[in-house]
Every structure is written in C-alpha cells, then in structure tokens.
Amino acid sequence: MAINGLGYLNQVNSTDKARQSLIKQISTGSAHPSASYGPSDYAISVRMNSNIGAAEQSNNNTQTMNSLLNVAAGGVSSTVNALSSLRSQILQAANGTNKDTDVAAIQKNVNQTIATVNDNASVEYNGKKLLDGSASLTVAGIDGYKNVQLGNMTAQGLGLTDENGNSKIDLSTNEGIAAALDTVDSALNAALDEETNIGAVQQNLTFASANYTTQTEALMNAESTSDDLDIAKAVTQLSSANTQNQMAIYAQKLFMHNNASVLKLLQ
Fold this sequence. Notes:
The chain has five helices and four strands, in the order H-H-H-E-E-E-E-H-H. The model has no long low-confidence stretch (mean pLDDT about 85). Strands 1-2 form a two-stranded antiparallel sheet. Strands 3-4 form a two-stranded antiparallel ribbon. The protein is mainly alpha-helical. It is rod-shaped, with a radius of gyration of 38 Å. About 25% of the residues are buried. The chain folds into two domains: about 1-30 and about 230-265; about 45-225, CATH 1.20.1330.10. InterPro entries: Flagellin, Flagellin_C, Flagellin_N.
C-alpha cells in the first residue's frame, strides 16, 4: 500500500510540474522562458533579443542625432541667409550714389547682421552648444561608432570679427569695401560647406535608420519563428494537465481514505 501511495504522490507531483511549466510558457508567450526548457534554444533566444534591443537602440541613436542636426542645420541655414544679405549690403555700400550718412546706416545694418550670425551660432540641443566649434559628436550603433564634427559658425570663426569681437567689415573706404566682400565671400563659402556637410551626414543617418529598422524586423521575425509559443496548443495541453492533476489528487485522497479505513478496522 505504501508503494501504491507513493506512486499516486509522484503522479500528483508530475502533473503539477507539467501544469506549472505550461503556465510559465503561456504567461511569457515563450517556448523557452528559461534554460530548463532547452539550454541551446534558450541561449539563441536570449542572443536574438539582445541583438533586437541593440538594433532598436542604434536606430534611436541615429534618429536622436538627426534631430540634433536638424537644429544645427537650421542655425547654419539662417547664417547662410544672413551672409547673403550681408553681401548685398556691402554691394549697396559700394555704389557711388551713397552719401556718408547712407554708408553709415549700411554699416550699422552690417553690424546687426554680424550679431545675428553669432545668435545663430548659439543654438543648443539638450544643453549642448552646436555651432561654436566645440561640438564633437558620436553616434553609437550596433555596427560601430560614427564621429560628427560641427564647424565654428560664430562671427569670429567665419572671419567676420577679430578675437575681441570687433567687426572686420569696414565700409568707410573703397579698399575696406573690397576687403569686406572677400571676407564675406569666404564666410559664405564656409557656411555653405557646413550646411552641405550636415546634409550629407543626415542623409547617411537616414539610410542607417532604415537599415536598422529592416535589421530589427528580420531579427524579430527570426526570434518569433524560433521561440514563439503555440498558445492554442499550450492551452489545450494545460487543460489536459489540469485534468490529470485533479485525477491524481483524487486518487491520492481516495487511497489515503481507504488506507485509513483499513487501519481503523485493524484496531
């Protein structure tokens, strides 16, 4: 009788273990929620999920960097417009019809435009200055790191002012006007180069983001094929395991009851 009782108890434990195993699988949706469900399959699933997370974070990094560069590009674009306006103002000052007061008024506008260039260079993203020459940026991705160096778009960096912030644009003489045109042309070329460089980096980041998206989808499909649980089948198995467990418990109770009755009769 003791052997039969032990057999019933083993059956209860076995069916309960099967139930708990199925419950864990169903609750996670994974065929291998731990290494005990298959060490190699579990390891493959963990690695795939790790790669999925890395690809998603890489995509987030590229998109965040693109947002930062949008801010920088806006500042540089405003500077390009300001320098184009500055060039027109200098050409206006060069016209022989101007009186001294006209040239003085144009000089004042020129100085204000140079101040605007410095305003444009003060743009920030998340507290980081972007166009003062200090921004050396890194884009971290699953396939390595990309460095992005933004130029110095301040008036001094573009050669419009000296190190003390004094304007190099002097419209009081013809020689000064000629030199001013050269200075502004050089600054405009530098700003255009910066604008096109930022555009090229953004284009590359857009391509990288699309690649990361494709990579993530492929990894998710592969992981799903490898590890997704057949829920309908598992629920059916759980129902069967519940029934078997209840029958085993009933049999164990019946055995214990009968055993107790026999012992009572023997007393």
